[in-house]
Protein backbone atom coordinates (compact mmCIF):
# COMPACT_ATOMS: atom_id res chain seq x y z
CA UNK A 1 0.00 0.00 0.00
CA UNK A 2 1.35 3.40 -1.00
CA UNK A 3 2.09 5.85 1.80
CA UNK A 4 0.07 9.08 1.95
CA UNK A 5 1.73 12.34 2.98
CA UNK A 6 -0.06 14.92 5.12
CA UNK A 7 -0.17 17.25 2.11
CA UNK A 8 -2.10 14.58 0.18
CA UNK A 9 -4.58 13.85 2.95
CA UNK A 10 -7.97 15.56 3.18
CA UNK A 11 -9.16 15.42 6.78
CA UNK A 12 -10.90 17.68 9.30
CA UNK A 13 -10.99 17.48 13.08
CA UNK A 14 -7.87 15.28 13.36
CA UNK A 15 -7.67 13.04 16.42
CA UNK A 16 -4.51 11.02 17.11
CA UNK A 17 -4.28 7.86 19.22
CA UNK A 18 -0.62 6.89 19.89
CA UNK A 19 -0.05 3.21 20.64
CA UNK A 20 3.39 2.90 22.23
CA UNK A 21 3.47 -0.89 22.10
CA UNK A 22 3.07 -0.81 18.32
CA UNK A 23 5.07 2.33 17.66
CA UNK A 24 2.12 3.54 15.59
CA UNK A 25 -0.20 6.53 15.52
CA UNK A 26 -3.85 6.12 14.53
CA UNK A 27 -5.29 9.22 12.87
CA UNK A 28 -9.07 9.64 12.93
CA UNK A 29 -11.12 12.57 11.67
CA UNK A 30 -13.92 13.78 9.45
CA UNK A 31 -12.90 11.98 6.28
CA UNK A 32 -15.83 12.38 3.87
CA UNK A 33 -14.89 14.28 0.71
CA UNK A 34 -17.79 16.65 1.38
CA UNK A 35 -18.59 16.61 5.09
CA UNK A 36 -21.37 19.16 4.55
CA UNK A 37 -23.54 16.62 2.73
CA UNK A 38 -24.41 12.94 2.90
CA UNK A 39 -22.22 10.95 5.26
CA UNK A 40 -20.27 7.92 4.07
CA UNK A 41 -18.62 6.98 7.36
CA UNK A 42 -15.23 7.34 9.02
CA UNK A 43 -11.76 6.13 8.07
CA UNK A 44 -8.52 5.80 10.01
CA UNK A 45 -4.92 6.22 8.86
CA UNK A 46 -1.95 4.48 10.49
CA UNK A 47 1.61 5.80 10.59
CA UNK A 48 4.85 5.88 12.53
CA UNK A 49 6.21 9.41 12.06
CA UNK A 50 3.28 11.88 11.71
CA UNK A 51 4.50 12.51 8.15
CA UNK A 52 3.25 9.56 6.11
CA UNK A 53 0.29 7.25 6.57
CA UNK A 54 -1.10 3.93 5.42
CA UNK A 55 -4.80 3.77 4.63
CA UNK A 56 -7.53 4.70 4.51
CA UNK A 57 -9.05 1.87 6.54
CA UNK A 58 -12.84 1.99 6.92
CA UNK A 59 -13.74 1.92 10.63
CA UNK A 60 -17.41 2.93 10.47
CA UNK A 61 -20.03 2.54 7.79
CA UNK A 62 -23.70 3.02 8.78
CA UNK A 63 -26.31 0.31 8.44
CA UNK A 64 -29.37 1.09 6.33
CA UNK A 65 -31.47 1.88 9.40
CA UNK A 66 -28.93 4.25 10.97
CA UNK A 67 -30.55 7.34 12.51
CA UNK A 68 -28.49 9.83 10.50
CA UNK A 69 -27.49 10.26 6.87
CA UNK A 70 -25.88 13.71 6.75
CA UNK A 71 -22.93 15.45 8.45
CA UNK A 72 -20.70 12.72 9.90
CA UNK A 73 -18.24 14.79 11.92
CA UNK A 74 -15.38 14.82 14.41
CA UNK A 75 -14.85 11.21 15.52
CA UNK A 76 -12.72 10.89 18.65
CA UNK A 77 -11.61 7.48 19.89
CA UNK A 78 -10.92 6.86 23.59
CA UNK A 79 -9.87 3.68 25.35
CA UNK A 80 -12.20 3.09 28.29
CA UNK A 81 -12.44 -0.11 30.33
CA UNK A 82 -10.59 -2.19 27.72
CA UNK A 83 -12.69 -1.17 24.72
CA UNK A 84 -12.49 1.68 22.24
CA UNK A 85 -15.32 4.22 22.24
CA UNK A 86 -15.87 6.64 19.39
CA UNK A 87 -17.62 9.95 20.12
CA UNK A 88 -18.91 11.32 16.81
CA UNK A 89 -21.38 13.93 15.60
CA UNK A 90 -24.29 13.12 13.29
CA UNK A 91 -27.30 15.04 12.00
CA UNK A 92 -30.43 13.14 13.03
CA UNK A 93 -33.04 12.24 10.44
CA UNK A 94 -35.98 12.74 12.81
CA UNK A 95 -35.39 16.38 13.79
CA UNK A 96 -32.50 17.56 11.57
CA UNK A 97 -30.41 18.49 14.63
CA UNK A 98 -26.79 17.63 15.28
CA UNK A 99 -25.87 15.44 18.25
CA UNK A 100 -22.91 13.42 19.52
CA UNK A 101 -23.36 9.66 19.78
CA UNK A 102 -21.15 6.88 21.14
CA UNK A 103 -19.93 3.93 19.08
CA UNK A 104 -17.77 1.02 20.22
CA UNK A 105 -15.18 -1.43 18.93
CA UNK A 106 -12.66 -3.90 20.28
CA UNK A 107 -10.04 -2.58 17.85
CA UNK A 108 -8.74 0.79 16.69
CA UNK A 109 -9.24 -0.53 13.17
CA UNK A 110 -12.92 -1.09 13.86
CA UNK A 111 -15.51 -1.84 12.90
CA UNK A 112 -17.22 0.64 15.23
CA UNK A 113 -20.91 -0.02 15.86
CA UNK A 114 -23.57 2.10 17.60
CA UNK A 115 -23.32 1.87 21.39
CA UNK A 116 -25.69 4.61 22.62
CA UNK A 117 -29.32 4.83 21.49
CA UNK A 118 -28.71 7.80 19.22
CA UNK A 119 -26.95 10.93 20.46
CA UNK A 120 -26.31 11.30 24.20
CA UNK A 121 -26.44 15.09 23.91
CA UNK A 122 -29.89 16.68 24.51
CA UNK A 123 -32.34 15.65 21.79
CA UNK A 124 -33.75 19.14 21.24
CA UNK A 125 -30.35 20.85 21.22
CA UNK A 126 -28.12 21.30 18.19
CA UNK A 127 -24.94 19.88 19.71
CA UNK A 128 -21.62 18.82 18.25
CA UNK A 129 -18.03 17.82 18.86
CA UNK A 130 -18.53 15.84 22.06
CA UNK A 131 -15.40 14.60 23.83
CA UNK A 132 -14.97 12.11 26.67
CA UNK A 133 -13.54 13.38 29.95
CA UNK A 134 -12.80 11.20 32.98
CA UNK A 135 -12.84 13.24 36.18
CA UNK A 136 -10.67 12.97 39.29
CA UNK A 137 -13.07 10.40 40.75
CA UNK A 138 -12.95 8.24 37.64
CA UNK A 139 -16.43 9.28 36.49
CA UNK A 140 -17.12 9.86 32.78
CA UNK A 141 -18.44 13.13 31.31
CA UNK A 142 -19.13 14.40 27.84
CA UNK A 143 -17.98 17.93 27.06
CA UNK A 144 -19.60 19.32 23.92
CA UNK A 145 -20.68 22.46 22.05
CA UNK A 146 -24.16 23.85 21.68
CA UNK A 147 -24.27 25.40 18.24
CA UNK A 148 -24.52 29.14 17.65
CA UNK A 149 -27.49 28.60 15.32
CA UNK A 150 -29.63 27.86 18.39
CA UNK A 151 -28.16 30.24 20.94
CA UNK A 152 -26.30 32.89 18.84
CA UNK A 153 -23.44 32.92 21.37
CA UNK A 154 -22.10 29.36 21.03
CA UNK A 155 -21.64 27.45 24.28
CA UNK A 156 -19.39 24.74 25.70
CA UNK A 157 -21.34 22.41 27.98
CA UNK A 158 -20.77 19.31 30.09
CA UNK A 159 -22.95 16.52 31.44
CA UNK A 160 -22.21 13.33 33.36
CA UNK A 161 -22.36 10.05 31.48
CA UNK A 162 -23.51 6.73 32.82
CA UNK A 163 -20.69 4.32 33.62
CA UNK A 164 -21.37 2.29 30.48
CA UNK A 165 -21.40 5.49 28.32
CA UNK A 166 -24.90 4.83 26.99
CA UNK A 167 -26.72 7.82 28.48
CA UNK A 168 -26.44 10.82 30.76
CA UNK A 169 -26.99 11.65 34.43
CA UNK A 170 -28.54 14.98 35.40
CA UNK A 171 -28.83 18.12 33.31
CA UNK A 172 -26.13 19.73 31.12
CA UNK A 173 -24.14 22.59 32.62
CA UNK A 174 -23.03 25.53 30.48
CA UNK A 175 -19.31 25.97 31.16
CA UNK A 176 -18.91 29.17 29.14
CA UNK A 177 -20.06 31.02 26.03
CA UNK A 178 -17.76 32.01 23.19
CA UNK A 179 -18.06 35.75 23.80
CA UNK A 180 -16.62 35.34 27.30
CA UNK A 181 -13.22 35.01 25.65
CA UNK A 182 -11.58 38.16 24.31
CA UNK A 183 -10.06 36.60 21.17
CA UNK A 184 -13.09 35.43 19.07
CA UNK A 185 -15.01 37.96 17.00
CA UNK A 186 -18.69 38.06 16.14
CA UNK A 187 -20.11 37.49 12.67
CA UNK A 188 -23.42 38.21 10.98
CA UNK A 189 -25.56 35.68 9.12
CA UNK A 190 -28.27 36.49 6.60
CA UNK A 191 -30.58 34.02 8.32
CA UNK A 192 -30.40 36.05 11.56
CA UNK A 193 -30.23 39.73 10.54
CA UNK A 194 -28.80 42.11 13.12
CA UNK A 195 -27.66 39.31 15.42
CA UNK A 196 -24.07 38.92 16.63
CA UNK A 197 -23.06 35.26 16.41
CA UNK A 198 -20.09 33.48 17.99
CA UNK A 199 -18.90 29.93 17.25
CA UNK A 200 -17.74 27.26 19.67
CA UNK A 201 -16.11 24.18 18.11
CA UNK A 202 -14.12 21.13 19.10
CA UNK A 203 -13.51 21.19 22.88
CA UNK A 204 -10.61 19.00 23.95
CA UNK A 205 -9.42 18.45 27.50
CA UNK A 206 -5.81 18.24 28.67
CA UNK A 207 -4.30 18.03 32.15
CA UNK A 208 -0.76 19.40 32.41
CA UNK A 209 2.09 17.73 34.20
CA UNK A 210 1.44 19.99 37.19
CA UNK A 211 -2.25 19.05 37.32
CA UNK A 212 -3.74 22.14 35.66
CA UNK A 213 -6.88 21.29 33.64
CA UNK A 214 -6.95 23.00 30.25
CA UNK A 215 -9.47 23.02 27.42
CA UNK A 216 -8.74 23.71 23.78
CA UNK A 217 -11.63 25.06 21.72
CA UNK A 218 -12.06 26.71 18.35
CA UNK A 219 -13.83 29.80 17.06
CA UNK A 220 -13.23 32.56 14.50
CA UNK A 221 -11.21 35.78 14.41
CA UNK A 222 -12.48 38.03 11.63
CA UNK A 223 -13.90 34.97 9.84
CA UNK A 224 -10.61 33.07 10.14
CA UNK A 225 -10.59 29.79 12.08
CA UNK A 226 -8.55 29.88 15.28
CA UNK A 227 -7.85 27.90 18.45
CA UNK A 228 -7.91 29.13 22.04
CA UNK A 229 -7.27 27.78 25.53
CA UNK A 230 -9.24 27.97 28.77
CA UNK A 231 -8.09 27.01 32.28
CA UNK A 232 -10.27 25.49 35.01
CA UNK A 233 -9.75 27.47 38.22
CA UNK A 234 -10.97 24.54 40.35
CA UNK A 235 -9.14 21.90 38.34
CA UNK A 236 -12.47 20.18 37.65
CA UNK A 237 -14.61 19.99 34.53
CA UNK A 238 -17.16 22.39 36.05
CA UNK A 239 -14.61 25.20 36.28
CA UNK A 240 -15.04 28.12 36.50
CA UNK A 241 -13.13 28.50 33.23
CA UNK A 242 -10.80 31.43 32.61
CA UNK A 243 -9.93 32.24 29.00
CA UNK A 244 -6.47 33.03 27.66
CA UNK A 245 -6.48 36.52 26.15
CA UNK A 246 -4.78 35.50 22.91
CA UNK A 247 -5.47 32.55 20.62
CA UNK A 248 -2.97 29.69 20.66
CA UNK A 249 -3.21 29.27 16.86
CA UNK A 250 -4.86 31.72 14.49
CA UNK A 251 -3.63 30.77 11.00
CA UNK A 252 -6.92 29.39 9.65
CA UNK A 253 -6.71 26.17 11.65
CA UNK A 254 -8.41 24.66 14.65
CA UNK A 255 -10.42 21.82 16.17
CA UNK A 256 -7.26 20.83 18.01
CA UNK A 257 -6.18 18.09 20.39
CA UNK A 258 -2.98 17.39 22.31
CA UNK A 259 -1.03 14.14 22.45
CA UNK A 260 2.48 12.98 23.26
CA UNK A 261 4.71 11.79 20.43
CA UNK A 262 6.85 8.72 20.96
CA UNK A 263 9.89 10.93 21.67
CA UNK A 264 7.99 12.57 24.53
CA UNK A 265 7.20 15.81 22.68
CA UNK A 266 3.83 17.41 23.35
CA UNK A 267 2.08 17.76 20.00
CA UNK A 268 -0.95 19.71 18.80
CA UNK A 269 -3.06 18.34 15.94
CA UNK A 270 -5.26 20.76 13.96
CA UNK A 271 -6.70 20.92 10.48
CA UNK A 272 -5.81 23.77 8.16
CA UNK A 273 -6.96 25.50 6.04
CA UNK A 274 -10.59 25.49 7.11
CA UNK A 275 -11.96 25.23 3.56
CA UNK A 276 -13.27 22.05 1.94
CA UNK A 277 -11.71 20.20 0.11
CA UNK A 278 -8.29 21.66 1.01
CA UNK A 279 -8.14 20.83 4.74
CA UNK A 280 -5.09 18.84 5.86
CA UNK A 281 -3.67 17.68 9.19
CA UNK A 282 -1.00 19.84 10.79
CA UNK A 283 1.12 18.73 13.75
CA UNK A 284 2.82 21.37 15.89
CA UNK A 285 5.21 21.05 18.83
CA UNK A 286 3.93 22.62 22.02
CA UNK A 287 5.79 23.89 25.06
CA UNK A 288 4.02 23.52 28.40
CA UNK A 289 5.21 25.89 31.11
CA UNK A 290 3.52 26.92 34.35
CA UNK A 291 0.17 25.63 33.13
CA UNK A 292 0.38 27.58 29.85
CA UNK A 293 0.81 26.37 26.27
CA UNK A 294 2.92 27.84 23.47
CA UNK A 295 3.52 26.71 19.88
CA UNK A 296 7.26 26.22 19.36
CA UNK A 297 7.49 24.68 15.90
CA UNK A 298 6.51 22.00 13.43
TrEMBL record:
Coiled coil: none annotated. InterPro entries: GH43_arabinanases (IPR050727), Glyco_hydro_43 (IPR006710), Glyco_hydro_beta-prop_sf (IPR023296). Keywords: Glycosidase, Hydrolase. Pathway: Glycan metabolism; L-arabinan degradation. Belongs to the glycosyl hydrolase 43 family. This is Glycoside hydrolase. It comes from Paenibacillus allorhizoplanae.
Amino acid sequence: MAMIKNTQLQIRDPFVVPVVEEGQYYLFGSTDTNIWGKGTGFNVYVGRDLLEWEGPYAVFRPEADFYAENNFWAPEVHKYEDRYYMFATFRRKDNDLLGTAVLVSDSLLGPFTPHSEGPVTPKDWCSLDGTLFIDEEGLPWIVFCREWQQVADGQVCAVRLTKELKGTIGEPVVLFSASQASWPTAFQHTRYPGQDNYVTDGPSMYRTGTGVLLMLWASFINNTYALGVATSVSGTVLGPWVQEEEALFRSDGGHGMLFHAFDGSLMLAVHTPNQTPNEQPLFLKIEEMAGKLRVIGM
